[in-house]
């Protein structure tokens, strides 16, 4: 009774899911402390104290009627908070409460954006390696995913991108900082990316939107955050509070555009319609109310930077080769075995280390590791990583 498409996707069940199940099995046998689970991208740093203070205050003074349906675009105070946060971060970018829509996470925002603009078989370019869900989101909106490999150092290969664009290209999804590699494209790369898109538009007649997926926007270490609004035209800015504020389970994100963009009013009307009719609407009204009351949406992310440094040290010590991550909470090292799936199997079965093969992200020969784990786990895994690397030399 299940649709052919879903049936096929279920049989190719996600690697992250498989690793999660393997982790549960190994933890039951060896105890949680003896399994080094680096497979999941779940934020480990809790929301700020002010969030819980706001929740307590609200619980003691609830608003009558405050839990009924709200406008499909989201609470106006939440949208205004997001607009002023973006203005503080990126300057005068034309984003107002009228051009922000609150969504069910960044995931919801991406689905809303794609559903709003795609006609059947319109092409959406996804860089590889990718966040696995993108291809499903494109399918949800009846589009066609087209893959464009990132360069060896995970920057955009402009020649590859140029050869991927056709007259049917409707959007490119760009995630920066990037899951799974932890790389961050600087301002000049965003500018040359934009210049190429405009050139190709003139050549092919396509109208190309950039879905700038930025849920790791505040998890950037030692580098300046680039300003996508200043560099990219026809920009749909997508972000969420999942990672920046540690609220992943609350499912609150947003989609924002510059009100001066051509067709801004039509895009907003389409987003609101899609948000409603996709069925999930915008996220919890209580969480929208809480984030509206926070003194700031800007957070220090020192905890992730410390973990990044510790993980880099452990992997370097063991001998792994990788491009050092600049943001997010993932590293994407080269697999010491040609077969990355065999490597991850070996890591799990012999060393209790849970990793995800690069094949699961559309780039073989690598593996992904999330350092959103306890500092203790990172340190305890040191010897296991060394032994694993040594074993691969044999
Ligand atoms: N985009 C990327 C690149 C992600 O890594 C994730 C979550 O892991 C999402 C989007 C979805 O985030 P959210 O929890 O805000 O829906």
From TrEMBL:
Entry keywords, A to Z: Aminotransferase, Transferase
GO molecular function, one term: transaminase activity
InterPro entries (UniProt xref): Aminotransferase_I/II_large, NHTrfase_class1_PyrdxlP-BS, PyrdxlP-dep_Trfase, PyrdxlP-dep_Trfase_major, PyrdxlP-dep_Trfase_small
Residue span, Aminotransferase class I/classII large domain: 35-384
Protein name: Aminotransferase
A Pfam family that the UniProt record links to this protein: Aminotran_1_2
Keyword Zinc among UniProt keywords: no
Highest rank taxon of the organism: Bacteria
Cofactor(s) of this protein: pyridoxal 5'-phosphate
EC top class, as a word: transferase
Family statement: Belongs to the class-I pyridoxal-phosphate-dependent aminotransferase family.
UniProt-listed Enzyme Commission number(s): 2.6.1.-
């Amino acid at each position: 009774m299940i649709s052919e498409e879903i049936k096929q996707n279920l049989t190719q069940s996600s690697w992250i899911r498989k690793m999660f199940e393997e982790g549960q099995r190994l933890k039951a046998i060896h105890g949680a402390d003896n399994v080094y689970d680096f497979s999941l991208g779940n934020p480990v740093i809790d929301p700020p104290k002010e969030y819980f203070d706001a929740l307590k205050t609200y619980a003691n003074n609830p608003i009558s009627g405050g839990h009924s349906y709200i406008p499909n675009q989201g609470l106006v105070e939440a949208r205004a908070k997001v607009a002023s946060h973006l203005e503080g971060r990126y300057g005068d970018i034309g984003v107002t409460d009228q051009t922000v829509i609150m969504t069910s996470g960044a995931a919801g925002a991406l689905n809303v954006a794609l559903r709003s603009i795609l006609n059947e078989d319109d092409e959406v370019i996804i860089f590889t390696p990718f966040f696995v869900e993108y291809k499903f989101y494109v399918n949800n909106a009846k589009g066609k995913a087209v893959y464009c490999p990132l360069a060896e150092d995970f920057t955009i290969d402009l020649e590859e991108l140029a050869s991927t664009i056709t007259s049917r290209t409707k959007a490119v999804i760009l995630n920066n900082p990037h899951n799974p590699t932890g790389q961050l494209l600087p301002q000049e790369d965003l500018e040359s990316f934009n210049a190429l898109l405009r050139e190709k538009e003139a050549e092919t007649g396509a109208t190309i939107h950039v879905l700038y997926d930025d849920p790791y926007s505040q998890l950037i270490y030692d580098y300046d955050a680039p300003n996508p609004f200043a560099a990219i035209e026809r920009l749909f800015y997508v972000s969420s509070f999942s990672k920046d504020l540690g609220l992943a389970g609350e499912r609150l994100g947003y989609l924002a555009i510059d009100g001066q963009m051509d067709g801004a009013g039509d895009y907003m009307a389409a987003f609101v319609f899609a948000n409603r009719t996709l069925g999930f609407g915008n996220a919890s009204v209580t969480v929208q109310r809480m984030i509206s009351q926070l003194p700031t949406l800007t957070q220090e992310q020192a905890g992730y930077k410390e973990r990044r440094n510790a993980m880099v040290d452990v992997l370097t010590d063991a001998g792994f080769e990788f491009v050092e991550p600049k943001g997010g909470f993932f590293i994407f090292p080269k697999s010491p075995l040609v077969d990355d799936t065999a490597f991850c199997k070996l890591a799990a079965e012999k060393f209790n280390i849970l990793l995800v093969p690069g094949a699961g992200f559309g780039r073989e020969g690598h593996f992904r590791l999330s350092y959103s784990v306890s500092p203790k786990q990172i340190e305890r895994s040191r010897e296991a990583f060394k032994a694993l690397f040594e074993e691969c030399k044999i």
